[in-house]
Amino acid sequence: MSKKIAILGGGESGIGTAILAKKNGYEIFLSDKGKIKEKYKEVLRNIEIDWEDQQHTEARIFDADVVMKSPGIPDTAPMIVQLKKEGIPVISEIEFASWFSEVPVIGITGSNGKTTVTSLVQHLLQQGGVNSGMGGNIGNSYAKLVAEETHDWHVLEISSFQLDGIVKFRPHIAVLTNITPDHLDRYDYNLENYIASKFRIVENQTENDFFIYDADDKIITGWLEKNPVRSKKLPFSLEITIENGAYIKDENIVVTINNTKFTMPTSELALQGKHNAKNAMAAATVSQLLRIRKQTIRESMSNFQGVEHRLEKVLKINNVLYINDSKATNVNATYYALESMESETVWILGGVDKGNVYDDLLPLVNEKVKAIVCLGVDNNKIKASFGNIVENIVETTSMSEAVQMAYRLAEKGDNVLLSPACASFDLFENYEDRGRQFKEAVRNL
């Protein structure tokens, strides 16, 4: 008798789960309360499984042996609460995929930097001749990777929402870039819940696994003092000397693992800025664990192209540089962006507030920002936070309007920075859509 799986959500993770479940003989029903994109419907028709959108047929969902829910559905949704009450397991796509794969996983999570570190690790492995596949929260879903490709390693970007639904999922190498308040709307506005969620990445690790983390992050080190982890710890730091792990000495990155040392001048890194030095240390530590040649690591870290929508230089117009940092969906990410600005900046921000506190940005805004262009449905909090230090705050309701307004406010030598510090769901599909609209609007100036 085949097992029954109900899949809630017809996006990347839902479709990946359907492909993998089909391959493993499950009876599948996929249901999405919203509209499923045409490209995904095409896949569902091709693999011939039952699906529906714009509704949930509860009888069929509650008939399942296991339910995979998309990361976008909160645990507090009435149907999820009811499923759990009835004893039907509700898991995430990364948990489901892990049941069918023996390939070791490098799992990367954190409030910021995880996409950059994931992309950099994959770049390093590929340059080093390692057969690795990248996915998770970036590119293809983990389930699709497992179903359709053959690799020796999987490099996964993993969000806290994906970690919320794990049971046995265990990365051989776990990376935690940092923890700052984010997505608190999903965690009862309780930071402790969010921290616990991020640390689930190490909960199934054993003494044979590795945990790479930021030793300068007080939230991380505070949690580790109270909660021992079984895996081998390899911290990285800008502030202290690390015996086993990575640190900066005389403007060189130094990575030491079991008395093997790797060094590289920070000036040679393709991505500059303090936060990128940390991203580089995390990725170099992974590469050292996989014994990639030191020369290859150096070359790869100096020729890495960076990530789309993350401090991406778009164009210079009338000597004004337009920078797309649409991926900055929280305050901490925007902090890094503003910190790296070397000229007067017209800052475009706003969107769906996830419980943002803007206090940390005030000194940087005071020093670097000459005007603010709000891009969101409700901008009251932004105006209240920065009204005293930025004279010029304007409101707009579309990307093209925001870019035109920034164009008027910027003068020769200035930057125009899109770094929203908010989620994008009020005016855009997602941060990629927001970033692409920004680039298009800039090119149309």
Number of helices: 17
Residues in helices, as a percent range: 25-40%
CATH domain topology of the largest domain: UDP-N-acetylmuramoyl-L-alanine:D-glutamate ligase
CATH level-two architecture of the largest domain: 3-Layer(aba) Sandwich
**How many domains make up the coordinates?**
3
Biggest beta sheet attributes: 9 strands, mixed
Per DSSP, what share of the residues sits in E-state strands of 2 or more residues? 15-25%
How far apart are the first and last residues' alpha carbons, in Å? 61 Å
Strand order of the largest sheet: 7-8-6-9-10-11-12-13-14
Low-confidence stretches: none
What is the overall pLDDT average? 92
CATH class of the largest domain: Alpha Beta
Label the overall shape: globular
Radius of gyration: 22 Å
Textual characterization of the structure:
With about 450 residues, the protein is of the alpha/beta class. The chain is built from 17 helices and 20 strands. It has three domains: about 5-90, Rossmann fold (3-Layer(aba) Sandwich); about 95-305, Mur-like, catalytic domain (UDP-N-acetylmuramoyl-L-alanine:D-glutamate ligase), CATH 3.40.1190.10; about 310-445, Alpha-Beta Complex (Protein-Tyrosine Phosphatase, Chain A), CATH 3.90.190.20. It has helices at about 10-25, 40-45, 60, 80-85, 95-100, 115-125, 140-150, 160-165, 190-200, 220-225, 275-290, 295-305, 330-340, 360-370, 380-385, 400-410, 430-445; strands spanning about 5-10, 25-30, 50-55, 65-70, 90, 105-110, 130-135, 155, 175, 210-215, 230-235, 245-250, 250-255, 260-265, 310-315, 320-325, 345-350, 370-375, 390-395, 415-420. The strands form three sheets. A nine-stranded mixed beta sheet has the order 7-8-6-9-10-11-12-13-14, sandwiched between helices. Strands 15-16-20-17-18-19 form a six-stranded mixed beta sheet, with helices on both faces. Strand 1 (about 5-10), helix 1 (about 10-25) and strand 2 (about 25-30) form a beta-alpha-beta unit. The mean pLDDT is about 90.
